[in-house]
Each structure stands twice: as C-alpha cells, then as structure tokens.
Amino acid sequence: MQPNPDLGETAYIAVRDLTMAFADRVIQRDLNFAVRRGEIFVVMGGSGCGKSTLLRHLLGLQQPAKGAVFYAARSLWESPPSERAAILRKTGVLFQSGALWSSMTLVENVALPLGQFTDLPPGEIEAIARLKLALVGLAGFEEYYPAELSGGMQKRAGLARAMALDPDILFFDEPSAGLDPLSAKRLDDLILSLRDNLGATIVVVTHELASIFAIADNSIFLDAESQTIIATGNPRDLLADSTDVRVREFLTRGRHYRGDRGPDRADEGRV
Amino acid sequence: MASPNDGQQPGFPAESAAHAPFVDVRRDASGRLAVSFGGDWRIGSALPDLTPVHAALSDKTPQILVLAAPRLSAWDSRFLTQLMGLADLAESRGITVDTAQLPRGVCSLLQLAHAVPERMDTGREPDDPSWLAAVGRWSQWLVQDFRDLLAFVGEATLSMGSVVVGKARFRRVDLLRLMQDCGAMALPIVSLISLLVGLILAFVGAVQLQMFGAQVYIADLVGLGMTREMGALMTAVIVSGRSGAAFAAQLGTMNVNQEIDAFKAMGISTFDFLVVPRLLALISMMPILCLYAMLMGIIGGAIVAVAFFDISVSEYITETLRVVQMRHFLIGLFKGLVFGVLVGTAGCLRGMQCGRSASAVGDAATSAVVTSIVFIVVADSVLTLVFNRLRL
Questions:
Q1: b/e for A167-179, b at 16 or more Cβ within 10 A?
Q2: Pair B106, B76: CB distance under 8 Å
Q3: How many Cα atoms are found within 13 Å in the side-chain-facing hemisphere of B360?
Q4: Interface predicted TM-score (ipTM) of this complex, two decimals
C-alpha cells in the first residue's frame, strides 16, 4: 500500500485504473478520476452503464477486477480489514431505496451505528439520533417503522442514518429516483447544505438532469458502449463546451442530437 | 388508406365489425405479389391459413411483396407478429417488402420494432440442452455450494467465539424476540405433532406386542423411541419449517432491500449482528423444545395404552421409569442441540446466499427447509450409529 504519487493534496478519493466486471462481463474498464475534499461530485450516465456498480466498488461492497480505490492516499482494497473498516467508518451512504432496517424504528435505525462504534451512554445516543432525524425534517416520526413512511420520508431517514457518525464522505445512489420534483428539489437543497454547513465531501450517482445541474461541482460521464469515462468536468461547462455527441445528447435530453442529424431513419415505410 | 370508420385503431372494434379475418393473395405480371388483409385480426379470432402466402413467396420468387389492409376492421399485436413473420421470410429470400399501404399505426409499430437492432454481444446464450453440460454445471454448483458452506461455518465460528469471550455486538432485544419466535411460539405445533407421534408409535407397537400379551412394553417402546429419537427428530423438522424458512426469508428480503449492504457499508459484521443471534436462539431453544416433545410423546403413548390396551396409568408410569434412564434423555437433548445448529446454519446460509428478486427469496426459503432436513437426517443417522457403537 503505497501513497499514490499523482494525487495532489486535494484529492480525497482517487480511483486508479479501476476495471469492474461481473464474472467475465466487463462493465467499465480503466477508470481514473479523483474527488476533491469538500466538493459535490456527480457520477452520471445512462441506465445500465455501471454507475451503481461503481458506487459499490467505492463502498467496499464489491471487489475490483483490476485497479484500486484510494481514500486520502490509502488503498481501500489493499489495506488490512481493520484499516478498511476504519476508512469505511468515515463514509455514509444513502442507498437507492433507503435500505432502512425494516425491523427497527427510525430512531433505532439511526442509533444503531452510534451504539456499535461509540461508547456513549444510551441516553446520549438517542438524543443524537433524534437530532439527526430532526435535521432531515422527521422530528415526530422517531417511533415509526420504515414501512409506515412514504418513499421520500424513507430516503430522508436513510440520510439521517448515513449522517449518524458525522462522516467526512457521503454517497448518494440515485437520490431523486422515485421522488416527485418538489421532494427531489428539497433533497438537492439538503445535499447542498450538507456540503456548505458540514464541509462534507459528497459523491452522487444520478441521471436526473435537474439535480446534476443544481448540485454538481465536478462530474464524470460513464458510457456503457465504450465502457469508460467519456467526459469529466462541471456539467455546465460540459453542456457549453463538450463536442462529444453522446454527452450533449444526454445533457440536452436528445435535442442536440436530433437537431443536428434530422430524422435518423431513412427507411420509413419499410420493414 | 382506409377511412377512420374502418376501425384502423387497435382496441375495441365497432359493434358491427366482428368480421372473420381473411387474406387475399394476388400476383401480377411484373413480379409483384400483393397480399391484402381484411376482417378482425386480433388475439382470440381464428386466423386464416397463411400457407398460400408462404407458398407464393417460395415458388417463382416475386421481386416485391406489397402488404395492404384495405378492409381490416380490427387488429392488435397478433396482426403485427404475423406481418413480421411474413416480412422476415420475404427478406430472407431477398424480396423487397412494401408496407406503405398498411394503416399508419401498423407501419409505425413495425418500424419501432425494427428501430433498435438485436444486441448479439449480451453474453447470454439460450440454455445448452445437452445433459452432459447440465451435469457439469450441477457439479460446479455443488462444489461452489460446499465452499460457501465452509466459509459460512468459518465466519460463524469466529463470530460465536467473540460472543463467548463477551464481545457480543447484536442487540439483546433482537435475541429475546428470536428466542420467543423459535421457542414459545412453536409450543402449540410441537405439542400436537409429538403427541400424535407418541400415539402412532404406541399403536404400531401395541398391535404386535398384544400377540404375545406383552402390552405393558408399549411404555418401553414409546419411552425409548421418543427420548432417543423421535422427540428431537420431529422437533427439528418442525423448527426447520418454521424458523429455518423464516430465517432464510428474513435475511433474503434484507438482501433484496439492500439492508445487508447497509450493514456492510457501515462496517458492521452481518454475522455478528444477524447470524449469531439466530444461531443462539435455536441453540438455546431446541433442547427445551425437544424435552417438551419427549414428554408430550410419552403422554400420547400413555393415552393409547390406557384407553385401548387395559394398562393402568401407574403401570405405564412404573414401566416408563424403569426403562427410560437419564442417558436416553441426554442423547435426545444432544441430538436436539446438533439439529438446532444445523437448522440455523442452513436457514442463515440460504438467506445470505439469496439473490435480488422476490422469487429468489422463495427459493431461499424452500432451499433452507430442504437443506435442513437433509442435514438433520444425515446427522441423525451418524449420531444413532455412533451411540449404538458406544453402547449408550
């Protein structure tokens, strides 16, 4: 485990030559990117391009076929298990469905990681758990079970749990999936305030254009066809400058593409 | 093109439009084959024979196939698949297909179906039907499954070790709830089954023993049978169906909902938190349930003996006390303990292996019960043999 030479001071998460595969089927190969401390980093791309799989690699849930993931220049997969656990303890994640533990109430969900990793007395743990729930606007729902809440509330409770241990890095898997536009906007605002008020580094996997433009400081664009990153940078700059037709098509919902090429099937009226 | 009143849209036809479907084939001198469709071409209507069209496409191959539907009253996907079949056949023979005269809706759906070419690189072939391949795949699965089992047992042992030295990570309330589910809640069904097993044992034995006038030995048969063998065995089968399947379904659903991922991403061991309390609940409850089942079985035997074979209650009790000794109970309780570990292992293993779909959860529960029963019966045979050799 050697520190990676070409990571600057600012690179908090660095991915080097990462290849992801299920058995023999390669999803993405030779990914390289870095996330700076305190920025909101968006991983975008079409459905099925491997965005969520990339997240699983960053979270230590799936082992890379090749390459490495560094947190503050420490390799996640080459570290001994105890050190890997220490790295992961600095992270929190909001899964796509919330992934709350369905057999526990909201306050128990948020309190569990605190109970596992701190020596605080039970009363104080519960106080912290209630505070986190209040921060995401769920005060009063402490004793509810996840199944009794709407999808948006489950996501917010999931976020409260992700924030339980005051992590340095927060991961979001499709935060706006299944939410109405207004709830999605509120979640975006929450993400922005987490960066601004807590100084958290945030990695968001999404394909929601409104979110991408609202929150991203930096981004990568994964492409399923070429199995690699085809664009890097702030999405607004990409929209303005990118010459890649796939990136422009995605960021403009296909308008650019159709506008340039006109109707793309010349064989109309034939089977 | 037909007028809108001809029912050119899919869905409900006009009331009067229930015409039988027909197809009309005409060939003109310039090598054009004109096929026109009419009537009701939907799922549920009896379609006309298309062999004349096929024949016309095959012999003296025409150059252009013109499809038209001037008198079509109603259509749905079935019409489309028939058209696509004809078009594919024609194109495979190098015949140009002209669909311009078909209704607009049909045309655009056909184009949509052909818009994205079929992906050939998805890496998924239709299943190889050869039995040799099936045997090979099955053996690979067997080896992999055995490795999973070993890994599971290893991890579970480490986690149980940390409990023994006083570093339990799970919540006590979870353990208590599981003990209640596996233990107290199983009492009614265990009572019923073991009482009936005692009855059955008594009847089966009594008919033979009566021939020698030795009915009093029913007590021996039932007493030894329930304590050494049937008490533990029946309890284990019941518990595998109740708790083993429940464990697999619980853990499997947690896997589907990414709850397991949430534990792992937080660095909380799923073995410490989920597997260990389940194993502990079964290990603590199984011997107690077994003891209860043995007593219920003996009571069942007594009912038969007293009611049908003229044996007094005191005779039955004396005979039972004479023959059933402490070691017989201990053998039964030891078996119960072993079965408890096996049921817990099978249930949790299948739950942790579960895939990410609703049917995978069902498969996990089924597989948990099957695996536990196989484990139980094999272990019981081995243990019975061992105790027999040891003259216990």
A1: bbbbbbbbbbebb
A2: no
A3: 15
A4: 0.82
Residue A30 and residue A67 in contact, taking contact as beta carbons nearer than 8 Å: yes
Contact predicate B343/B240, CB 8 Å: yes
Q: Confirm or reject contact between A97 and chain B (CB < 8 A).
A: yes
Tally of domains in chain B: 2
* β-pairing verdict for A169-173 and A91-94: parallel
Task: Tell me whether residues B99 and A89 touch, CB distance under 8 A.
Answer: no
Tell if the CB–CB gap between B268 and A93 is shorter than 8 Å: no
Per residue of chain A (271 residues), what is the pLDDT tens digit?
344 444 455 688 999 999 998 877 888 888 999 999 889 999 998 888 888 899 999 998 888 988 989 998 888 888 888 888 888 888 999 998 888 999 899 999 999 999 888 888 989 999 999 999 998 888 889 899 999 998 888 988 999 999 888 898 999 998 888 788 888 888 899 889 888 888 889 999 998 888 899 999 999 999 888 888 888 999 888 888 888 888 888 888 877 554 444 444 444 444 3
In a domain, B130, yes or no: no
Find tokens 């539907």 and name the residue. B69
Q: Collect all residues of chain A within an 8 Å Cβ-Cβ radius of residue B262.
A: 93, 95, 99-101, 161
CB B190 within 8 A of CB B289: yes
Q: Which residue range is the domain that position B25 belongs to?
A: 4-114
Residue contact B111–A268, C-beta within 8 A = yes
Same domain, B99 and B233: no
Whether residues B265 and A112 touch (CB distance < 8 A) is answered with no
**Rounded CA separation B23/B37 (Å):** 5
**Residue at token pair 């299948």:** B350
**What pLDDT shows up at residue B123?**
61
Mapped onto helix, strand or coil, the DSSP state of residue B41 is strand
Domain contains B150: no
Q: Which of B110, B254, B266 sits opposite A271 (nearest CB)?
A: B110
B184-194: b or e for each residue (b if 16 or more CB lie within 10 Å)?
eebeeebbebb
Q: In this structure, what CATH number is given to the domain that contains residue B82?
A: 3.30.750.24
Statement to judge: residues B293 and B209 lie in one domain: yes
Q: Where along chain A do its domains lie? A: 101-160
Phi-psi region of B189 (alpha: psi -120 to 50; beta: other; left: phi over 0): alpha
Both B56 and B174 in a single domain? no
Residue B274 counted as domain residue:
yes
First vs last C-alpha separation in chain A: 58
Question: How high is the pLDDT of residue A264?
Answer: 44
* Phi/psi at B169 (5° precision): -105, -15
**Subunit contact A97:B83, Cβ cutoff 8 A:** no
Count each helix (H run) and each strand (E run) in chain B, helices first: 15, 4
d(CA B119, CA A4): 40
DSSP symbol at A216: -
With vertex at residue B229, the alpha carbon angle to CA B223 and CA B235, rounded to the nearest 5 degrees, is: 105
Residue B163 within any structural domain of the chain: yes
- Distance of alpha carbon B315 from its chain centroid, rounded? 49
Closest-CA residue to B278 (of B319, B250, B258, B315): B250
Closest CA to B71 of B7, B14, B27: B7
Is B99 touching A (CB cutoff 8 A)?
yes
